[in-house]
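Feature request, filed as a ticket because there's no other form

It would be nice if the structure record came with a short human-readable summary line next to the tokens. Right now we just get the raw output. Example of a typical job, pasted below so the devs can see what we mean:
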Amino acid sequence: MQFKDIIGQRVLINQLTEIIDSGRISHAQLFLGQNGYGSLALAIAYAQYLNCQNRHHYEEGSELRADSCGQCPSCLQYQQLAHPDLHLYFPNATNTRVKEKPTSTQFITEFRDYMAQCGQYAEVAEWMDFIKSENKQGIINVNDAREALTALSYKPYMAPYKVAVFWMAEKMNPESANALLKIIEEPMSRTLILLVAEKSDKMLSTIISRTQLVQVGKIDNASLLSALQKRNPEQNDMQRLQFAAASGEGDIIEAQNALVHNEEHELFTEIFVTWMRQLFKLNMATLSDITSRIHEMGREQEKRFLLFCMDALRACCLKTAAGIELSHKLQFGDEKFNASFAAYITPNNITQLTDEFNNTLYAIERNAYGKLAFMNLSFSISKLLKKR
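Raw output as currently delivered:
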């Protein structure tokens, strides 16, 4: 991965290349930011630039100050994630092939294939589906940390630096985190440890305190829109592309999902508005029609609809309690509804409303009859909306 292939993040990239060129390289760094911001892609591009044999520097005034050459033996191996001095660790779990004691090494071929597919903008749930982990929670276990200790104890094979990248470092269990801490506290010569995480509050504070923080922020909207156009050349509806970019809120994964599921979003929005309006009237015939329509979606789409509704209610509560405007992806397309409905969602009823939706989600997941579950939910919501 070259820096030129990263979506946006030009200011941060220039800071990273300047740090390497000046020789001020910290042995352990934490790339902290949503996966869709490009934190993993940035970490790998950073390592590739560090070990590039022929770094390219652009003329003053260019968007990027420098980049790896992309053509030397080191870059070519990095682009395949197959460099002998690059060691990758990531969440994993047993599946039909790996029956016990899984490690990242056992899944490295699948991980390379997945990274090529996602363009190094990886998503942990998608990755776990890719390896058919049967809904298991992926972790980075102590065996990975021990393998890293062994791999980093050797001299570099062909590059100036050995690099270990831990993607989703917050997925380390306590034993593996403590093993990694020992590596960080006793750094080896010419070794770089790059931790990539979305949430630092789930990591050991001692690890965080011993790493240099690289804060990866949101992608700017113009870069997000341009990336969506390149990724979806068949999509020529600029309004939909702009909506998806805005809905992504700086996250390319969310923006791509918004584009792919745009029709579903429009359906959910239309049903949500119609449903909420009818709850103030409690016309049984109309409510029956609406709940039948929801039930006809099928179980998985019913579940996504419930999650959409909860997101909408939380956004409305923030608008009522703190004056925070609804995010672009939760604008319902009806200014009158947006202005009036949010007032009914307050700190006095949001917890109970959320509980009712969660209870229905739980029931649907356990094969409850959807029409009856949504009708019961309708009566509960109607009462709670009047308790604002």
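Something like this underneath would help us a lot:
Strands lie at 28-32, 56-57, 66-67, 86-89, 162-167, 191-197, 212-215.
DSSP finds 17 helices and seven strands in the chain.
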